[in-house]
Amino acid sequence: PRPFFPLTLHPLLPPPPRARPPPRASPKVRRDHASETAEDYVEAIESIGRELGSCRVSDLARHMRVSHVTGVKTLERLVAGGLVRKAPYGPATLTAAGARMARASRGRHACVLSFLRAIGVPDDVAARDAEGLEHHASPATLAAMGRFVLGRARP
What we know:
Blueprint: H1 27-52, H2 57-64, H3 68-80, E1 84-86, E2 92-94, H4 96-118, H5 123-133, H6 139-149
Antiparallel strand pairs: 1-2
Helix pairs in contact: 1-2, 1-4, 2-3, 4-5, 4-6
């Protein structure tokens, strides 16, 4: 019988091309993603607290559609970052910094959503798109969107 050689190791075939390592996210991309997550969570904590009177981990995990463990880990990071207060087995509450972040994020979201609706994007699509765009638009872009919505394309 002939010896078995996997195709990649056969002596008559050229070696396979070297795989490139996957690109690594830049530090800025990682920071932006962490900030986006923090903004989404503080907005959710504020919203759940307003709706239910308090925000427990299980409420937050359900709202964010993540596991309980992910909710706990994210809350730990938010507590360490000074955005949230949480006693063991108690509800999560926003610190003054967390409340400022939630308010700013909510304002950016409203601005982007209003702009998308003003240019004719259907409501369901605008709501979905605004959720991502609010975190990545620069202050100058948000200001221009606001001016457009108010009917002043230029100052």
